Amino acid sequence: WDLLGLEIDMNRKKDKGFETPLFLNVLTCYVMFIPHTTHQVVCINNINFQRKSVIGFVELTIFPTVVNLNRIKLNSKQCRIYRVRVNDLEAPFIYNDPTLEVCHHESKQRNLNYFSSAYTAAVSAVDPDAGHGELVIKVPSELWKQGDEMNVLKVYIEFSLDQPKGGLHFVVPDVEGSMAERGAHVFSFGYQNSTRFWFPCVDSYSELCTWKLEFTVDASMVAVSCGDLVETVYTHDMRKKTFHYVLPIPTAASNISLSVGPFEILVEPYMHEVTHFCLPQLLPLLKHSMSYLHEIFEFYEEILTCRYPYSCFKTVFVDEAYVQVSSYASMSIFSTNLLHSAMIIDQTPLTRQCLAQALAQQFFGCFISRMSWADEWVLKGISGYIYGLYLKKTFGVNQYRHWIKEELDKMVEYELKMGGVLLHPTFGGGKDKDNPTPHLHFSIKHPHTLSWKYYKMFQCKAHLVMRLIENRISMEFMLQVFNKLLSLASTASSQKYQSHMWSQMLVSTHSFLKSISNVSGKDIGPLIKQWVDQSAVVKFFGSFAFNRKRNVLELEIRQDYTSSGTQKYVGPIKVTVQELDGSFNHTLQIEENSLKHDIPCHSKSRRNKKKKIPLMNGEEVDMDLSAMDADSPLLWIRIDPDMSILRKVEFEQADFMWQYQLRYERDVVAQEESILALEKFPTPASRLALTDILEQDQCFYKVRQGACFCLAKIANSMMSTWTGPPAMKSLFTRMFCCKSCPNIVKTNTFISFQSYFLQKTMPVAMAQLRDIQNLCPKDVLNFILDLIKYNDNRKNKFSDNYYRAELIDALTNSLTPAISISNEVRTVDNLNGDVRLILEEITRSLNMEKLLPSYRNTITVSCLRAIRMLQKNGHIPSDPSLFKSYAEYGHFVDVRVAALEAVVDYTRGMHRTSPSEVSRTHPIPYVVHKILSMLGKNPPFTKAAESPLCNEALVDQLWKLMNSGTSHDWRLRCDAVNLYYTLFGLTRPSCLPLPELGLVLNLKEKKAVLNPTIKPEQGPDTTEMTVSSVSMSSGVAPPPQGLKRKLDSVVGPLGSSSPEPGQVLQEEDTSKKFKIRVRISSEDEIDMESPHDSQAFIHHHLNILERPSTPGQHPVKHPALIILLSDNLEPPAVDQAVLSLPVTPLPSSFGKESTSSSKHSGDHHHHHHHHEHKKKKKKKHKHKHKHKHESKDKERDSHAFSNSPASGRSARSPSMSD
Q1: Could you tell me where the Basic and acidic residues compositional bias lies (predicted)?
Q2: What's the distance, CA 667 to chain centroid?
Q3: Looking at residues 1067-1080, what average pLDDT do you find?
Q4: Do the Cβ atoms of 1061 and 1152 come closer than 8 Å?
Q5: DSSP string, 920-937
Q6: Cβ 147 vs Cβ 70: under 8 Å
Q7: Nearest 5 degrees, angle CA 1055-CA 1060-CA 1062?
């Protein structure tokens, strides 16, 4: 029931629009429902790169599924809505976005528990899956009766975007020339369903419709979007052209994207339906990077036994990308940094992997969408799983198993630290169900409230669980299930609109499990219950004893299921025992209380009998058995070798067993486990085993790289007993140096990639060696300097930039803390000789990079890290100015991130710079995301520690950042929440003074309560929320704030009722508006706010002062944290204006700018507004004297804590929040 049984009768008082009495007569109520959009037209007819603005309209064809449809709710953020028509009739509308500013009334508490609850409520209030939205359109009453015949409704909306902060990203290089010559381009971006940021739509993955997309751009530009390009039409003057795309396959709005720029175009030579787009002059790189894409297509089509679902595929490479890969229906947007030439070795596999991920998501994620957020794990799991199969086929089983181990280790580490990742959350049904993850500081109810790191781990766990399902039902059945899902979706997509048919294109957890059951006939219920319906991983501890009399292996497996992020495992576990007579698999049953398991041995211990030993893969090898226990036939033991449980295993066995496992076990996972274990056994035998591995060309290169670092650690532990040259030096000399002159390295030829990766890694590991004085041995340092000095790449067909960068990293690793002499001033002149050599080499490399930049500036990145390490070790004075200059906008993104990392580290070490002053200008969302992530990972202080940086100003800035400064980007808001949690925890930050009032009188409920700011709140009390927002959300707790406030004068799109220049707008005391008087008798008037006022207010909130300020108005100086993200994350403009004022008047530019900025809107807007003025004058008079008292009180209160974020008024919005 819409509005909880309250309905507004539009015909009652025509002169007041929406402001009419509420009727409680249930008979006149109308049914609210989620209408089905069957088709949508998006037409963008102007994209202005100078102003960074977009103008266009959308037309949605809506199929009513019930009679008497009276209201339509759509999603729209940032868009300025000019007019709405339903079937050619003007329709009134309300625009309210509760996520713009999450907490309005909570000005003192600064409590993260409260914020998380409020943010979840705000996101729920506009959640399209629940039938809500920011834009509420009133269907004209003339059309209500049509609902009986179920006629379709056409909803036409004109909108514009001005300097969007999210959804669309404009890249306009500051150089000479036309926009096309400058390489200016724009592309859509966002995390999860973010299409609402750039056009009004139903922004849900489960709402499918067909699409017609039209984009008018300059003749020199190309518009790339989803679907088939039907035609390109030039205007009469040939200065512009319109691209017409049609997408006949039902697709969710969230999977629609756009990219416009002066792209160069490459048609795939092997598959003409595939087209690639890149920025000017990158075509040669594009040709090489895309040369194997057709192989990925062939692989997926073969394993899924299903053709690629769309008629075309487009790849677009853009600068300043949000993520490396973004997949949309029939197109993917990639970072231009993935492109590379044939000379680059290291980037090649990474780019191929990104392409394979993008293509997997075309099948599962774009073509097949999800029923609800709780089913996201199925799509992420399937796309990740088939990507893994591609990895196995292209890069080999070793790489695949290494990747699985890497992903499992990452995920297990995160779960043990954070307390668990839940794949299939269910809500409702008691307190426990309403928050299934109480251990987290954020809600997992919506993708938009998740921490980014949690979401990455969620994707990781999803594909690992798919692999567990494959282990249970076999790969053959698994692929049959995928084929079945695709076949059903393919049949459904070709049907005309029938809602029940199109639902076959949506996957749910239930339908996926049902398919598995039907295809395989196996019950995987317990597996799903263990890994999908509950979070946490398993932690095993294993040890054994050999009973010689019984010839039995007594294995003990214990579990830790009490720590955070752990759960109890009951079920089968595989144990592999390598004996003298072969390798044997045993499946043990882990019961509730069983710890010990007896495993019979197949072979007797041998004394002096020479015989080849068979391995798991059938190979037979000679082994030197002198190291093993003479009484035992056991060579090594492995628990869960196939990683068929999401677990961490700590197993104890003798050092010789780990050495045998490293040398002779052919599984890379076993070898990596033994390398890790051997760090604890620094013996000559361990040294020999590791050296043997380094010399084995057949061994997987990543195992050999791991062995390098392990050998360095062992050498440092054996410092006093080590004999011979430093570890790895003689081996490197033998493999890579001239025979006649061992200190000169051979000319580079990176033909063997295995050798190349080893040659890169060995110097970095050698630099970790230390002598008795804990310094890097002199001959090792000279050896590394010689490698740099004699490096010769003239005859090599591959670039050596990554190799040179690793040599700089080796110099960094060789640094040790300086020996400080009291009162000595550090200068270059009194530097230690070795350190001076290192500094000279770094300076030379950095200067060379400016003349001849390397691919992706890898050497600059390494040099910046090296300089920071010199500072940290006290060799040169700590100074962040160099890093700040490299962090400026304009440098390559990797360089900026490396420089910012150094500044963050400096902030932590010196406690001088506030984390907010990390950098000045960052208009790139990715860079801001990296800053906040780095501050979270390496915080300047934590909630447990005292720090001079922990002060009220910082709390205030960070609170503003997450409360309103990041409303345009879900990911950034969650990053800010993470940082706040790391610095201050869940409750009120300790650095804030105690609130001044201990008792609060609640006049509304006629009772006195303890000040809620003194104790941590569990969440916003939904009953106290503004009644004004009740008209915004049906069936869901209203958002915890009162965005629907009004200005005294409406500023419409036309600016028809704007004040005269110089007139100051006075804002009313909004607290009066929260008390709405409702009486049943029809004579009584109800004091409700005008929707158009709130709409105008929000337009201002989004657009007005974010443009250059009017002459004579001084821009507000940002406090520190705003400096950090100043280009990206200004708080909404209205409040910036308010910041500089003692009380409520707003600057005159408020009205003026709106007028000037909206000149292009048509004459058809002002008719909504002309009847509002009489009412406003009355209200103004009514509240005038109260308003004066209020402002005096405010001024008096503000002196007590004038700069304090804990003061009674929020620094963001003095009058609004009070």
Answers
A1: 1190-1199
A2: 33
A3: 36
A4: yes
A5: S----HHHHHHHHHHHHH
A6: no
A7: 125
